[in-house]
Write a structure and sequence with these properties.
296 residues; five-stranded antiparallel sheet; 22 strands; mainly beta; globular
């Protein structure tokens, strides 16, 4: 006699996300290249103190946390405690304008910024995404809030927009899932479906990312999509490293950042592919520019 089957318990959102992580951990192929690929675009940048062009930021951006560039080439950044987005002149560090999300002061642990079309996206360390349109100087703009659920299993540190698939790329500084420990994970959140793409997280081993620099850790604090190469750039602030990886998770190159970077938190690329890195500071934040081919 067959035992009657019990009705299935509805799966909670956090369990669903865990299943996605776990399934992805099984199917994603890791490529541990011991050498930098000869075609890596990171090799076009000379990351030395002599090649760096540095500017100080206003005190309001002392704790700058993320960077993004609009389609028309303007640079924006944000701090890590309030949802204030500032347009920054990369040559001087001056704030051109600043607008804020919400009528009241929206506060949180903001860890990344991305721009997709006319929409700006902020993400918090616990995986909350805020969407808003650009505002004028001093404006308070309405926003939409999305809880991705990522914060239950991932400490988020970095956000980027990947145009080809219209996805937001969410970098995890650390993960709490045993099967993914020792890995660097980048999640893909579809702007059209407002959900994670099942089976498509990007997973890399920390060993592969740090192989060229003899480091044992790689903890991302910033991420950006490099439109010229189609690859991802990850910066690991606590470890002083930068890496280029493909959207399939293959590590192409890693380099050590020069010691002038006190606490790198954000990365972006200007239209001419100049790399911009933002550092928090004790008194002021800083922008550092690296042009392709080194200093001019």
């Amino acid at each position: 006699m067959k035992r009657p089957s019990l009705p299935k318990r509805p799966r909670r959102a956090s369990e669903d996300l865990l299943a996605r992580f776990t399934w992805a951990a099984v199917v994603v192929v890791l490529v541990r290249s011991p050498y930098a690929a000869s075609d890596a675009s990171l090799n076009q940048y000379v990351l030395t103190e002599d090649a760096a062009v540095r500017t100080e930021l206003p005190r309001a951006l002392r704790e700058i946390s993320g960077l993004a560039v609009t389609a028309d080439g303007r640079l924006f950044g944000h701090g890590d405690e309030r949802a204030v987005i500032s347009q920054i002149d990369p040559s001087s560090g001056d704030v051109v304008k600043a607008f804020e999300l919400g009528e009241d002061a929206l506060r949180g642990d903001f860890e990344g910024l991305a721009v997709a079309g006319d929409r700006f996206y902020l993400v918090t360390s616990d995986g909350i995404i805020y969407e808003a349109q650009e505002g004028g100087d001093g404006a308070r703009v309405p926003y939409h809030r999305f809880d991705t659920g990522a914060g239950k299993h991932c400490e988020v540190e970095g956000l980027a927009f990947e145009a080809a698939q219209r996805t937001l790329l969410i970098a995890c500084k650390s993960v709490s899932i045993d099967r993914l420990r020792g890995s660097v994970v980048v999640l893909r959140w579809s702007l059209d479906r407002r959900e994670f793409d099942v089976g498509l997280p990007i997973r890399m081993s920390e060993a592969a990312l740090s192989a060229l620099t003899n480091d044992r850790r790689f903890r991302p604090t910033g991420i950006e999509w490099h439109s010229a190469s189609g690859n991802l750039y990850l910066i690991a602030g606590p470890d002083g490293l930068i890496a280029e990886v493909t959207l399939e998770g293959r590590v192409l190159a890693t380099k050590r950042l020069p010691r002038i970077h006190r606490q790198p938190e954000g990365i972006a690329f200007l239209p001419d592919m100049t790399m911009v890195i933002a550092d928090e500071g004790r008194r002021r934040g800083r922008l550092t520019l690296y042009r392709r081919g080194g200093a001019e």
